[in-house]
């Protein structure tokens, strides 16, 4: 954290993104949706990864993440 960031206050929210394609797309979907209503998103942390299996193949990814953003 730089000196410039020293007085910033951050808030965390938890989301779960999903995708039939990949973990990365599930994360991107969650962040893109959050970005529609939340300004100043700064980082994310993946907290859990799950999947649904159909006929021996991954059918769907679900990724839970915490998104941090700066309060104005």
Give a structural overview:
The chain is of the alpha+beta class and 72 residues long. The chain is 18% helix and 53% strand. The protein contains one helix and three strands; from the N terminus they run βαββ. Strands 1-3-2 form a three-stranded antiparallel beta sheet, with helices on one face. A hairpin with a 2-residue loop joins β2 and β3. The longest helix is centred in the middle third of the chain and has 13 residues. The relative contact order is 0.33. The mean pLDDT is 92.
Radius of gyration: 15 Å
Helix content: 10-25%
Number of helices: 1
Major sheet strand order: 1-3-2
What's the shape?
elongated
Q: If you average the pLDDT, what whole number results?
A: 92
Residue runs with pLDDT of under 50 for 5 or more positions: none
Major β-sheet annotation:
3 strands, antiparallel
Given helix and strand content, the structural type is alpha+beta
Beta percentage is over 45%
In whole angstroms, the N-to-C terminal distance is 18 Å
What is the string of helix and strand elements?
EHEE
The count of β-strands is: 3
Quick structural overview:
This protein is an alpha+beta fold and 72 residues long.
Give the helix/strand layout.
Blueprint: E1 10-19, H1 23-35, E2 41-54, E3 57-70
Antiparallel strand pairs: 1-3, 2-3
Key structural traits:
53% strand; single chain; 72 residues; alpha+beta
């Amino acid at each position: 954290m730089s000196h410039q960031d020293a007085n910033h206050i951050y808030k965390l929210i938890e989301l779960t993104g999903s995708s039939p394609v990949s973990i990365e797309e599930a994360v991107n979907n969650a962040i893109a949706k959050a970005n529609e209503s939340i300004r100043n998103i700064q980082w994310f942390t993946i907290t859990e990864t799950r999947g649904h299996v159909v006929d021996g193949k991954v059918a769907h990814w679900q990724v839970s993440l915490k998104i941090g953003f700066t309060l104005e």
